Amino acid sequence: MSKQHLGHTARKRFGQNFLHDQYIISQIVDAIGPRPGQNLVEIGPGLGALTEPVCDEVDRLTVVELDRDLAARLRSHPFISGKLNIIEADAMKFDFASLATDGQPLRVFGNLPYNISTPLMFHLFSFTGHIQDMHFMLQKEVVKRLAAGPGNKDYGRLSVMAQYYCQVMPVLEVPPGAFKPAPKVDSAVVRLIPYAERPVEVADISMLNRVCAMAFNQRRKTIRNSLRELLSEAEILALGLNPDCRAENLSLQEFAVLANHCLNREHG
């Protein structure tokens, strides 16, 4: 398959795969449900597969695009350039709070490059206080990990952290043929709705992240072993948890208990 698509070459370093299946595109736009007056932000608009149909529904859309050629292309787009606020920036470093003007929450969406999707979501989680919802096209495996619960092989640090910040709802699956060039993996769209009130109390989010990272980095080990730098077996028992458990058996609530205890001990 030619990598030339409408005069733009898909760049591997940007992880570019362009969506072209009109039926899938309309399903995604329906799932997003854009309305005039909303504060919509698209990450990585690419060749405008989602940008154009979303612009048909709204009067204004902010797009964050790293690729200079694609940003220039959107600036000169014959039909939608007047509706676009184009920000040439790396979404991984961008301050999304700066777009929440007049206290209007953001509705974020995008076909995220697979090579940066997980760190980019962690970056966006830090702005959830300014976000109404997010709709992302991701590798199907990543969507499974976002939605997985304890005891599932896909359950990991991403599951725990995403579910601390957001309600996770898989929306639809997308076959490789919907893209040019076709990726080697299946894709899926997920809806993430940030909680107004978090489902558990966590005193320090970085400690929760640290405990999850340590536990899941050695997921075959029991938490007695994987967390021994942070907690003794006696402390785990005192918290009402079984030291013989593995990370994949602990709920978000239990990870919160461990993280809060570690923080109290460090500051105690």
From TrEMBL:
* Compartmental location: Cytoplasm
Stated name of the protein:
Ribosomal RNA small subunit methyltransferase A
Recorded GO cellular component terms are: cytosol
Instruction: Tell me the residue numbers annotated for binding S-adenosyl-L-methionine.
Output: N17, L19, G44, E65, D90, N111
Cross-referenced Gene3D superfamilies, in alphabetical order? Answer: Ribosomal RNA adenine dimethylase-like, domain 2 (1.10.8.100), Vaccinia Virus protein VP39 (3.40.50.150)
UniProt keyword annotations, A-Z: Cytoplasm, Methyltransferase, RNA-binding, rRNA processing, S-adenosyl-L-methionine, Transferase
Q: Which organism is it from?
A: Bowmanella dokdonensis
Tell me the InterPro entries matching this sequence.
Answer: KsgA/Erm, rRNA_Ade_diMease-like_C, rRNA_Ade_Mease_Trfase_CS, rRNA_Ade_methylase_Trfase_N, rRNA_adenine_dimethylase, SAM-dependent_MTases_sf
Superkingdom is Bacteria
Identify the taxonomic lineage of the organism of origin.
Bacteria, Pseudomonadati, Pseudomonadota, Gammaproteobacteria, Alteromonadales
The record ties this protein, via Pfam families, to: RrnaAD (PF00398)
> Recorded E.C. number(s)?
2.1.1.182
